[in-house]
């Protein structure tokens, strides 16, 4: 079923044609990645699709009754809004669909009404109407709002507020989800959960993200927005990059062959011009060659399409630190509000190591970095940190502090580079007119590029980067990745971009629930091994192996019974969902209206049982977590 269609869509921003003839169609089940440079119009196109903006020219066709939902970048909540009320806003839309389905079911003998019922039923099923309560419980748990339903939405932190907006979007009952950087403020575990949740959604998904692994997991086609127009590619983002590389290579080869042939023909033509005056025969030959040359140039092969110039990133290091022990810490302890973040007796970073620091949001990753940098003290009286002789540290702060907000870009760089400031800013994709913006007025992407530019000038032998890919487009993320791959110094990275970390890191530090783990491999391998170790055995033995052990038998017995009940509930939920699917398949067949009424009653009964099973499953899961 078609949701939305654009024809020759144009949008002008000032004197610039941001969109110039965009043709795009979204249907139920579509999984589309929208890619393009920062400023190419991706967010503008999404706002046009949902009706927040009006096009300068062209048409947008939305099917009757469909709803598109765009993820808010800066969500605002009222004083009465709670976590629960925000998440359940979309329930009214789903309930209205249920009421309309029930009203139409009384008149299904009419073919026209039957077709209306069938189309609405398809939408209802696609947006998860039958699993709305279960989806609500899943969002609470997956985005870590379980037990916080009555908290005021207005007092949430910026990252939590955006996570709540994401949860509301997932439960909105929309026919198309427009996800603008959905993984911002999500840690690796939440991102993995979101990938799984989206796979069960039946509507359309249009995603903008700088997280390449996420795009690979949730998209099946790529819409490349470039110079105001869309070009579609089959496959996920990695497939798109491979195809673009092959296209660029083919275009370059064809253009080189055409230039070579053009040079050969020009040589023949030049020789014919020298002989043309000698005889009528040579004059006729010259005329023929000129005509053929004109036709050849009319059929000229176009030069290869050059991508917009990207940022030139380098982290030069004229003199490497000679110290083998780059950074070392002892008794690194930190707690927050009575909760232990980490307790590390000894930590050593050696020359040339590339370390990824991972863990859930709030685990203490940035705090550990600040302790290592000496910006925060250890809670332990013997805590100390030492850097090796000659080691210079460059720190990328995710809050992008350290710059005077009142200065312009040029003034900021002039203090570092003098007259070379204009050239340096141009190399980092700051146009001349933008160089006179005050730092406080820079966008997130501009502030990130400014911080990286400053870092590249420091000749640091140890780079500590806290979320460096936030606010960067995919092209700049890839440029940063290449620069760090060629960087000869030592790296310590915090990021929720697993593809980025796996390319760069050879060692993993993991913070989780106050525990610190040091693993000698990239984080992807560590997380895979950890998930395998954490997987429950298929046939656990409830009897203790050692009857004389000092473990508390009551707790062991309680956990085992809870795990068995959870397994039983999961099997029951799977069976109920299968019955619902079978019922829905039967409903798609031509039946008497009395049969439809009976099936509607059966559907409501199964749905009630499913909600009850999910509610108990959530209770059991919480009890297991508490244990």
TrEMBL record:
In terms of domain of life, where is this protein from? Bacteria
Q: Which organism is it from?
A: Meiothermus taiwanensis WR-220
Pfam families assigned to the protein according to its UniProt record, in alphabetical order: ABC_tran, ABC_tran_Xtn
Coiled-coil blocks: 559-616
Q: Which UniProt keywords apply?
A: ATP-binding, Coiled coil, Nucleotide-binding
Q: Which residues form the ABC transporter domain?
A: 4-252, 327-538
- What name does this protein carry? ABC transporter protein
Q: Does the keyword Nucleotide-binding apply?
A: yes
State the residue spans of region: Disordered.
Answer: 531-556
């Amino acid at each position: 079923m078609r949701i939305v269609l654009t024809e020759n869509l144009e949008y002008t921003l000032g004197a610039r044609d941001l969109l110039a003839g965009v043709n795009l169609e979204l249907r139920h089940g579509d999984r589309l990645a929208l890619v393009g440079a920062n400023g190419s119009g991706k967010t503008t196109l999404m706002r046009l699709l949902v009706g927040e903006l009006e096009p300068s020219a062209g048409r947008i066709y939305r099917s009757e009754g469909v709803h598109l939902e765009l993820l808010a970048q800066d969500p605002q909540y009222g004083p009465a809004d709670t976590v629960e009320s925000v998440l359940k806003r979309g329930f009214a839309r789903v309930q209205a669909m249920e009421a309309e389905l029930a009203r139409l079911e009384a008149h299904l003998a009419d073919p026209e009404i039957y077709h209306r019922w069938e189309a609405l039923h398809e939408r209802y099923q696609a947006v998860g109407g039958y699993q709305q309560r279960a989806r609500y419980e899943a969002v609470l748990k997956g985005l870590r709002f379980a037990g916080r339903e009555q908290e005021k939405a207005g007092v949430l932190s910026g990252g939590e507020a955006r996570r709540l907006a994401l949860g509301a979007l997932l439960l909105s009952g929309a026919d198309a989800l427009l996800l603008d950087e959905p993984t911002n403020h999500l840690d690796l575990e939440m991102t993995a959960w979101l990938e799984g949740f989206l796979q069960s959604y039946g509507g359309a998904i249009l995603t903008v993200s700088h997280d390449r692994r996420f795009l690979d997991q949730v998209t099946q086609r790529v819409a490349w927005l470039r110079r105001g127009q869309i070009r579609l590619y089959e496959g996920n983002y990695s497939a798109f990059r491979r195809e673009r590389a092959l296209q660029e290579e083919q275009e370059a080869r064809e253009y080189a062959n055409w230039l070579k042939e053009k040079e050969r023909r020009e040589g023949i033509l030049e020789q014919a011009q020298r002989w043309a005056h000698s005889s009528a025969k040579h004059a006729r030959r010259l005329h023929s060659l000129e005509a053929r040359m004109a036709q050849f140039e009319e059929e000229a092969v176009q030069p290869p399409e050059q991508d917009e110039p990207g940022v030139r990133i380098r982290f030069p290091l004229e003199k490497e630190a000679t110290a083998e022990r780059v950074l070392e810490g002892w008794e690194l302890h930190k707690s927050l509000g009575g909760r232990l973040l980490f307790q590390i007796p000894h930590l050593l970073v050696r020359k040339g190591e590339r370390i990824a620091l991972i863990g859930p949001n709030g685990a203490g990753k940035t705090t550990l970095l600040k302790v290592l940098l000496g910006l925060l003290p250890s809670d332990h009286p013997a805590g100390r940190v030492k850097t090796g002789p000659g080691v210079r540290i460059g720190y990328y702060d995710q809050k992008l502090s350290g710059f005077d907000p009142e200065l312009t870009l040029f003034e900021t760089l002039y203090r570092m580079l003098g007259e070379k400031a204009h050239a340096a800013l141009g190399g980092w994709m700051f146009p001349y007119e933008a160089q006179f913006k005050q730092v406080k007025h820079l966008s997130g992407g501009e502030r990130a590029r400014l911080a990286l530019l400053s870092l590249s000038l420091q000749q640091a032998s140890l780079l500590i980067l806290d979320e460096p890919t936030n606010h960067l487009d995919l092209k700049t993320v890839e440029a940063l990745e290449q620069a760090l791959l060629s960087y000869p110094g030592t790296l310590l990275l915090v990021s929720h971009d697993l593809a980025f970390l796996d390319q760069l890191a050879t060692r993993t530090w993991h913070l989780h629930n106050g525990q610190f783990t040091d693993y000698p491999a990239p984080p992807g391998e560590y997380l895979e091994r950890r998930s395998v170790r954490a997987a429950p055995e298929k046939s656990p033995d409830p009897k203790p192996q050692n009857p004389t052990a000092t473990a508390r038998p009551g707790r062991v017995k309680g956990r085992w019974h809870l795990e068995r009940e959870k397994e039983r509930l999961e099997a029951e939920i799977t069976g109920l969902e299968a019955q619902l699917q079978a019922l829905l398949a039967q409903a798609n067949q031509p039946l008497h209206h009395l049969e439809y009424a009976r099936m509607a009653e059966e559907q409501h009964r199964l749905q009630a049982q499913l909600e009850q099973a999910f509610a108990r499953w959530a209770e059991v899961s919480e009890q297991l977590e508490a244990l």
